[in-house]
Amino acid sequence: MWYLEAPTLFLLLITSGIMILFSGLTRLVFKKDLAPKVLILANVAVIGIISYELLLISLGYILITFIMIKHLTHRKRCRKFLFVLYCLICTIPFFYGRMHEFVPQLPVLIVFIGIAYHMLKAVDALYFVYYTEMDIPFFTYANYILFFPTFTAGPIFRYRDWLRVYTNPKKLTFDDFIGYIKRFIKGMFKKMVVLWFVTAVFTHILDMELTWYLSLLLILLSYITVYLDLSGYSDIAIATGSAMGFTVPENFRKPLSSASFTVFWRNWHITLSDWVREHIFVVLNGKRLGRIASALVGFCTMFVMEMWHGFTFPYIIGGIYNGLCLGLENLFGLTKVDKRKMNKAVYVLRCILVNFAFAVNTLLFTVNTEQFFRILKSFFA
What we know:
Largest sheet: none
Number of helices: 16
């Protein structure tokens, strides 16, 4: 990952430190935090030093999507049509990049790190102006897309949340600063030490003659690998971004304590799950659909979420698998779990089953297709 390269990591830390000092000095001298005024310079500097091509492409994407956002803001005629059209246009670079998985002969027109996340932000901004008809200032939007601690992988800001922290950055206290340092170290330890060890064990077992219990261990290690990777980066992003006063949303909330898939997706990669739920599931399910319709919407939501990661056969399988899990849960009314009214043993068992079912899905991110089916086959050999 780009942020784990020593020069880039050093650049990230130096820039964050400068922003923290600037924020503190302006609060002291002018009684007001002026960090938002210069944030665009920090974002452009960090991304431009990493890759000027990436910066130019990002700025081009920002300009094009911002023009659409401004046009939609106070548009009365054909508003719904334009809203849908502009959302689709925002996805074009993403889908073009994904097409290379099917047609590698296509010319590489862009190199866009984080395009999937930028697409989600742009679409969310369109949702914001569509439902609120409020103006989005250009520099607020540019910083929203370019914010360097969350540039490549999130956590994903919703525009309304970004607007709140951007216009009123939080004052950094000494206790907060120490907490963010600990959070940063924790994230780096997950990524650089624990993940390295787990990956080494995982790779070693994968090369062995598999039995059902070794495959079970691989599924467990796969779950841990994905968790360490995602939550480790989230810790780093939350620490650096929040230390500058722009409080970054949490991305994980004790997923092991989830006794249903609905609850699980509210605790795992929270910002992505919330985006998918609010922009797809809630929009459709808000029409008071019946159980069958809700199950179909749940299935489609999870299928779209899985395909967001890649247009390949394993992800198609994963989309069907996750879609069935959530769809059947909606169909049989098992989405809500009241821990206080449930037998403790039943609650624990449901948590184990939900997390194990998801752990099987994580194999799609840690092994190739042949290895995936080899692991599953060992349970029936």
